[in-house]
Design goal:
By secondary structure, this protein is α/β, with parallel strands linked by helices. The protein folds into 2 domains: 45 residues, no CATH class; 250 residues, 2-enoyl-CoA Hydratase, Chain A, domain 1, CATH 3.90.226. The protein has 14 helices and 8 strands. Strands 1, 2, 3, 4, 5, 6, 7 and 8 form an 8-stranded mixed beta sheet that branches. α9 links the parallel β5 and β6.
């Protein structure tokens, strides 16, 4: 489950956890060795993750141990109440949506959820929403607007589900309506790309006043595999595709697609879910604090200007 260059880090982590268990039982003789191993782990992790290729970042974004939306809710949102169903067809478990308290402030939280373990992954459809998932998100967003609650979204999906049933129930319309709804919400909105940000399935929850991205997450119009298949007709070209797509956090910040990059503890979020959530919480608090000070007109104007200004185009 760990990548090949992480094996030595995993060995160190296991030794640290064993010593930590002894230390917690009152064995103070292991403290010196424990501190030494912790320092070695930090230094080695910093070196390992400092110079990764775009394809390596994509693989990290898909890491099976990476924290999901449910993990961030557990650590950051108090008294979370999840809502279900789109009032039309059914409930899509690939989308979590509900309300809770973030640092004593009532908020709406919506995010993709991939699930853990084979059974839950199947139930969550591997984080690929159907139309009813986006319509559930729209319903909850409008509730948040009615009660003047800020909206926080967590993006982590390879893309919207492309099956026949999803298309028959209006997948593209649901995504477009979600984007339109987010673009006109009369409350502050913050989106955080925590893993994969694949195509319209991700953008449906990404039309926010501020868009943040985790250090090893990616955000792209197509997956590297899809790009390689279209441009080169070869899956072996995924590394070249990942580089050409400019999908890493650094590239997206330089292009103005995202507003800030959130650093990951020890270089990768999967080593410490709780600490990763606390770092995300720090950035969320800062973003919401800034947005909540703006007037409604300024908020909507800035949001519109932000997305209209993206990309390169010429007027005919």
């Amino acid at each position: 489950m760990y990548l090949e260059y992480e094996k030595k880090l995993l060995e160190l982590k296991e030794r640290i956890e064993n010593l930590n268990a002894l230390y917690r039982t009152g064995n103070r003789d292991v403290e010196k060795e424990l501190r030494s191993l912790q320092k070695e782990f930090r230094e080695r992790a910093k070196k390992v993750y400092s110079d990764l290729s775009p394809w390596d970042r994509v693989r990290l974004a898909r890491h099976p141990k990476r924290p999901h939306t449910s993990d961030y809710i557990k650590y950051l949102i108090k008294d979370f109440v999840e809502l279900h169903g789109d009032r039309r067809f059914g409930d899509d478990r690939a989308i979590i949506a509900g309300f809770g308290y973030f640092r004593n402030q009532p908020v709406c939280v919506i995010g993709h959820e991939k699930g853990r373990g084979t059974q839950e992954k199947i139930e969550r459809n591997f984080g690929m929403p159907h139309p009813e998932g986006y319509r559930k998100a729209i319903r909850v967003m409008k509730l948040a607007e009615r009660f003047r609650m800020p909206v926080i979204t967590f993006i982590d999906t390879p893309g919207a589900y492309p099956g026949i049933g999803a298309e028959e129930r209006g997948q593209s319309e649901a995504i477009a309506e979600s984007m339109l709804t987010m673009g006109s919400l009369k409350v502050p909105t913050v989106a955080v790309v925590i893993g994969e940000g694949g195509s319209g399935g991700a953008l449906a929850l990404g039309v926010a006043d501020m868009v943040c991205i985790m250090e090893n997450a990616y955000y792209s119009v197509i997956s590297p595999e899809g790009c390689a298949a279209i441009l080169w007709k070869e899956q072996e070209k995924v590394k070249e595709a990942a580089k050409a797509l400019r999908l890493t956090a650094g590239d997206l910040k330089r292009l103005g697609v995202v507003d800030c990059i959130i650093p990951e503890p020890f270089g990768a979020a999967h080593w410490d879910h709780r600490r990763s959530a606390l770092v995300v919480g720090y950035f969320l608090k800062r973003c919401l604090g800034k947005l909540c000070r703006l007037s409604l007109d300024s908020l909507l104007e800035a949001r519109l200007r932000k997305f209209k200004g993206m990309g390169v185009y010429e007027e005919a």
